[in-house]
C-alpha cells in the first residue's frame, strides 16, 4: 500500500505561493523563517534566479532607459554623393570627382569633395579567374592594403568603400592639383634643389611603406599627385602587395618603370622585394632632371626592355648634372637588387651625399616650403578635360552635367596646372 501524501500541506503551499504579490520573491533566512520580498526587490531575484537569462541583443529595449544620442555623422552612401567631374584614368578604372550633398547631420559638410575610383565588378571577377586565385578579387581592391595602416601625409588616404550593382567605388581624399607627370611636362628639367625636394617626398612615402612591409610595384610620375602645399602624395595602390605575398610578381606595374627582376621574374628574398620600388624611384628622378624617360631613347620597345635588363642608360649631353646626382641615380638603377641603393633599408638613402642637406624630421613634418606651389584649382568652375560617364555606367551615383561652357570638348587641349 502506497504511503499517504500530505495533500493538505501541498495545497497550502500552493495557495501560499499564489497569494504572493506580483513580482515578489521568497527568501529563506538562516533562522528558518521565510521572508517575503516585495515587488521592489523581487523582480531582480526573479530575473536572476527564476528565469532563463536571455542575451542582451534578444531583449526588447526598455522604454525607461535614456540612451545616449549618437554624436558622429553616419557613413556616406552613394545617394549622398554627386558625380561632377572626371579626374583621370587609373590602372584599373576611371577616377571621378564626387561632391557630398547631405546636410541632415550637424557634422555633415555639404560640398566636400572626394576622389572616387570606380572598379568594374566584371573586371574584378575576370582578373580573379585569370590568375586562378580565390582571394584575388579582394586583393585587387586597394582598401585591403591601406585600411589597416595609419594615415600618412605622403600616401593618399582611403575614406570609404562602396558598391552598387555594377561597380566598386573606392573613396579617397581629393588631391586636385595635378600629377608629377604634368609638372614635369610643364617645368622640367628641374634643378638639383627642386629635384632633391620632390625625390625626398618619394623617399618619405617609401619609408612609410617599408615600415608597413608594402611594395607599391607601380611607381611612376602619373601615380604621384601634387597637393595644395606643393608636396607629393603617392596614389594608385592597385598593383601593390605585401612583401611576403607569394602571388605572381612577374610584369607587375608599368613596363618602362619595371626593375630587371620584375621583367625576368627573378626569385628574391622578402627583404629584397622592396628594391623594386627603389628602381622605379630612380627612373622618376632621372625623368625629373632630364625631362626624358631613362630607357626609352631607342628605336623599338624591345630594345628598351633589353636595356632595362642590362641596366644601360645614357646621360643627355645638353644637360649638366652634378656628380652626386649622377651617383644616386646610378646606384638606384643598379641591376643587382642586393647592391641597389635602398635595398638594405631606407637609412642608406637618407645618408646619401646628394641628400645631405635634407632635414628628414622637417621633411616628414612638411615644414619646408615647396619650390613650386600650384595655384588653387576651382574644379567646379573650370573646363572639363574628360567626358562624364553615362548614368547607366554608374547606376548608384547622380551625375551632374556641367554648364555648356565648362563641358568636355575634344577641340581643346588639357589646360596646364601652373
From TrEMBL:
Record's keyword annotation contains Transferase: yes
Pfam family, one: Pkinase
Catalytic activity from the UniProt record: L-seryl-[protein] + ATP = O-phospho-L-seryl-[protein] + ADP + H(+); L-threonyl-[protein] + ATP = O-phospho-L-threonyl-[protein] + ADP + H(+)
Gene Ontology CC terms: cAMP-dependent protein kinase complex
Gene Ontology molecular-function annotations: ATP binding; cAMP-dependent protein kinase activity
Protein name from the UniProt record: cAMP-dependent protein kinase
Native species: Laccaria amethystina LaAM-08-1
SMART domains: S_TKc
Alphabetized InterPro entries for the sequence: Kinase-like_dom_sf, Prot_kinase_dom, Ser/Thr_kinase_AS
Gene3D superfamilies tied to this protein: Phosphorylase Kinase, domain 1, Transferase(Phosphotransferase) domain 1
Compositionally biased intervals (Polar residues): 1-21
EC number(s) on file: 2.7.11.11
Keyword entries, A-Z: ATP-binding, Kinase, Nucleotide-binding, Serine/threonine-protein kinase, Transferase
Chain residue ranges for the region called Disordered: 1-28
Residue intervals of the Protein kinase domain: 81-355
